[in-house]
Design a protein that fits this description.
By secondary structure, the protein is α+β, with helices and mostly antiparallel strands. The chain has one domain. Helices cover about 30% and strands about 25% of the residues. The chain contains 2 helices and 3 strands. The chain has a 3-stranded antiparallel β-sheet, with helices on one face.
Length: about 90
């Protein structure tokens, strides 16, 4: 079951949305507005029911890892001169 907790820090309110992933691990995310936290939790719960929930940490990739993958996919990437451009 998911929950929303109101927190106040430095005079500003924010809302912490807490839920458990399918493996039972507790997760949380903070929002400035309560309505945003409610929408987020509704989406999370629906994804869990449909079986389409994915771990947010799996979407994180370092720039170095991405660059290595990108360069590996483009072996013929080399600078080419511009043609058809007339200098002014």
């Amino acid at each position: 079951m998911a929950s929303i907790e109101k927190r106040v820090r430095s005079g500003r309110a924010y809302y912490r949305a807490r839920y458990r992933d399918p493996s039972g691990r507790q997760r949380n995310k903070t929002f400035r507005r309560k309505v945003d936290a409610e929408k987020y939790l509704a989406l999370i719960e629906a994804a869990k029911v449909r079986g389409t929930w994915t771990d947010p940490a799996h979407g994180k990739i370092t720039l170095a890892a991405w660059l290595a993958t990108w360069w590996g996919a483009r072996p013929t990437c080399a600078p080419r001169p511009r043609r058809g451009i007339v200098p002014t």
